């Protein structure tokens, strides 16, 4: 048994080493990707589910990897956060979203508000608001045209700095959405602290909302609480008509999901934006 144990341990060790090598390789590639501009944004519509009208877009990062094709953030965001590369990645996201907004506007296709996802680590950078302001100025992005999405756990550490940064971003006209609402810790304390414009109900509550009374009760409770605090609510990950209808029946008509629009490249999306009419 001892022998076997040792053998297992050494297999495990090899696995660990292989893993570590893979991660170092990925880190090297991600650094290069940032230099070579291999990252790009796809966009997914936020929709009024009662009418199907598009209200805005969420920017979702992708990596056009030279060998492995188009990679979703699940392959590299965590590594970017662990290695600090998330900061450079984050700047590129802000820059790309502002530049794209300007291009769309120049083409007469206003997409509505664009929401970008920010990482916790970006909220320790005192320079964040200035750099956002600079990108907005250079690209002619007006207050209200940009929103930020944060997951609930984002501000857990060093809350004072994060809140200061958030206040300065608000002063620039950026509205705040709390992402993945209901899945993290301290949801309610965070609503009080952050006073977001919007909360996004996580897909975990949407998946079975048409078949489960408990999910409906939870969504209803979130809607009631949000209404009392004048916070908008949007449901994420809506994939079926039944989910859409159940949510609309509860009063949650702002929705996002594959049912309406998959995250898509700019080229594909631009044609669909033509149908979008400014409010
Ligand atoms: P998220 O912000 O919660 O984004 C929603 C995710 O759900 C996206 O995955 C989107 O493609 C996916 N999704 C949208 N509709 C549906 C649906 O109907 N069904 C299902 N099953 N999934 C749907 P994606 O693009 O892979 O992004 C994953 C996560 O990566 C995001 O979750 C966000 O936390 C992070 N992320 C994406 N872009 C950025 C970025 O620019 N910066 C940072 N820091 N994080 C990002
Ligand atoms: Ca998001
Ligand atoms: Ca989310
Ligand atoms: Ca998420």
From TrEMBL:
The keyword Nucleotidyltransferase does not apply. Keywords: Membrane, Transmembrane, Transmembrane helix. Residues 23-277 form the EAL domain. The keyword Transcription does not apply. This is EAL domain-containing protein. The lineage of its organism: Bacteria, Pseudomonadati, Pseudomonadota, Betaproteobacteria, Burkholderiales. The chain holds residues 383 to 661 of 661 of the full protein.
């Amino acid at each position: 048994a001892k022998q076997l144990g040792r053998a297992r341990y050494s297999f495990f060790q090899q696995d660990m080493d292989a893993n570590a090598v893979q991660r170092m390789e990925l880190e090297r590639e991600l650094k290069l990707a940032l230099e070579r501009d291999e990252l790009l944004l796809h966009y997914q519509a936020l929709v009024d589910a009662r009418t199907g009208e598009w209200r805005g877009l969420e920017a979702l990062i992708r990596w056009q990897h030279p060998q492995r094709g188009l990679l979703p953030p699940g392959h590299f965001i965590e590594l970017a956060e662990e290695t600090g590369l998330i900061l450079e990645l984050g700047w590129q996201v802000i820059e790309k979203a502002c530049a794209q907004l300007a291009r769309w506007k120049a083409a007469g296709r206003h997409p509505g508000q664009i929401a970008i996802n920010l990482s916790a680590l970006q909220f320790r950078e005192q320079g964040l608001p200035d750099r956002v302001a600079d990108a907005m100025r250079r690209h002619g992005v007006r207050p209200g045209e940009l929103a930020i999405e944060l997951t609930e756990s984002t501000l857990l550490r060093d809350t004072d700095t994060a809140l200061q940064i958030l206040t300065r971003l608000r002063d620039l006209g950026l509205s705040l959405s709390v992402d993945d609402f209901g899945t993290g810790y301290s949801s309610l304390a965070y609503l009080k602290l952050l006073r977001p414009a919007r909360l996004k109900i996580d897909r975990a509550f949407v998946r079975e909302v048409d078949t489960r009374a408990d999910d409906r009760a939870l969504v209803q409770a979130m809607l009631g609480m949000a209404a009392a605090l004048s916070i908008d609510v949007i449901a994420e990950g809506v994939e079926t008509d039944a989910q859409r209808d159940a949510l609309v029946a509860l009063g949650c008509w702002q929705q996002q999901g594959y049912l309406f629009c998959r995250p898509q490249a700019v080229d594909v999306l631009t044609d669909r934006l033509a149908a979008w009419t400014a409010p």
